[in-house]
């Protein structure tokens, strides 16, 4: 479905400019009059409904290819936020874009303008899901269970996800997954994946679907809508594996394979990939702890794309893990106010307020923490003894416990 819209009003919100258009389904016309713009069909990305507008019908067709995996919302009446993509007035090879979470961005090559648009959609979805915690992570599904891939940028997360999809896995997201304590599923929406320049040779099977098509330069970030390749799209699944990807340091290039992680270590690593930790504060630890406690958690050393996929496949084939109990430690006697600590199995994870340190304690350190807070008394632990006192002093210096 396509339509031609007239701009109804421009809203200002947090210094952003949001164009709002009345939706009236119609065939796209190649004729443009005054303030009219050609618009795509409405798209639904999680809770977000949006359209793409342009003065050029060819750009509407490109947007349709870019977001072909996103369904049309059930109710597309009324005002719908619009991402407006238009040729720049100064250079025919450059483009301007406005829209939610973007404001007004001008003078970009087409590939960069599309990347801005995808980023604007992603940020808008975050704003519309304030009760869910969002991770900078990818997710793929096999046998109705999800593998979550989290990693620092430039580690190979998107390439690994794409190779999993090419191997028959279903696709949830390459960039953002969301979790909530009240939901046993991880969720996402099938946004187009971003292909960085270094990943192009590793994903040559998708080259015919790269957007924008044609010669865009060696440094451009391209996009692929995996649904156009026949891949299965999913929006949710029960988590089974948390794979934290990392590259081997140059001086340890012999490293390969994977290493099992205790959930408390996975929580600390996942906090670094949390997109809205400022909004959640220490409560983010609760969400992550419940995720990690019911998954296999592993650090995976990135090797070749096929080698990394094989490692993930092997880890994923394991039967369901034993779910560890997550206990919030409340009312510690010497614990500073607003410090959050959780016992996961036999180990403790601590988050200091409001943006303080997050620590994963080993079993011995966890016993000390339980004794400091008065939750457990262990006869062999002397908090003033020479082996324990330096650790207690570290906790004091971090402002986690009182003097």
Features:
22 strands, disordered N terminus, five-stranded mixed barrel, 23% helix, 403 residues, 9 helices, alpha+beta, 3 domains, Rossmann fold, five-stranded mixed β-barrel, 32% strand
How would you portray this structure in words?
This protein has 403 residues and is an alpha+beta fold. The protein has 3 domains: 3-127, no CATH class; 133-316, Rossmann fold; 326-397, no CATH class. Helix content is 23%, strand content 32%. It has helices at residues 57-66, 110-127, 157-166, 263-271, 277-280, 283-292, 305-316, 363-372, 389-397; strands at 3-13, 16-22, 36-39, 43-45, 48-54, 79-87, 94-99, 103-109, 133-142, 145-150, 170-173, 176-180, 183-187, 193-195, 222-224, 236-247, 258-260, 296-302, 326-328, 340-344, 347-351, 358-360. The strands form 4 sheets. Strands 1-2-6-5-3 form a 5-stranded mixed beta barrel. Strands 9-10-16-13-12 form a 5-stranded mixed beta barrel, surrounded by 4 helices. Strand 7 (94-99) and strand 8 (103-109) form a beta hairpin. Helix 4 (263-271) crosses helix 6.
SSE diagram, text form:
Layout: E1 3-13, E2 16-22, E3 36-39, E4 43-45, E5 48-54, H1 57-66, E6 79-87, E7 94-99, E8 103-109, H2 110-127, E9 133-142, E10 145-150, H3 157-166, E11 170-173, E12 176-180, E13 183-187, E14 193-195, E15 222-224, E16 236-247, E17 258-260, H4 263-271, H5 277-280, H6 283-292, E18 296-302, H7 305-316, E19 326-328, E20 340-344, E21 347-351, E22 358-360, H8 363-372, H9 389-397
Parallel strand pairs: 5-6, 10-16, 16-18
Antiparallel strand pairs: 1-2, 1-3, 2-6, 3-5, 4-5, 6-7, 7-8, 9-10, 9-11, 9-12, 12-13, 13-16, 14-15, 17-18, 19-20, 20-21, 21-22
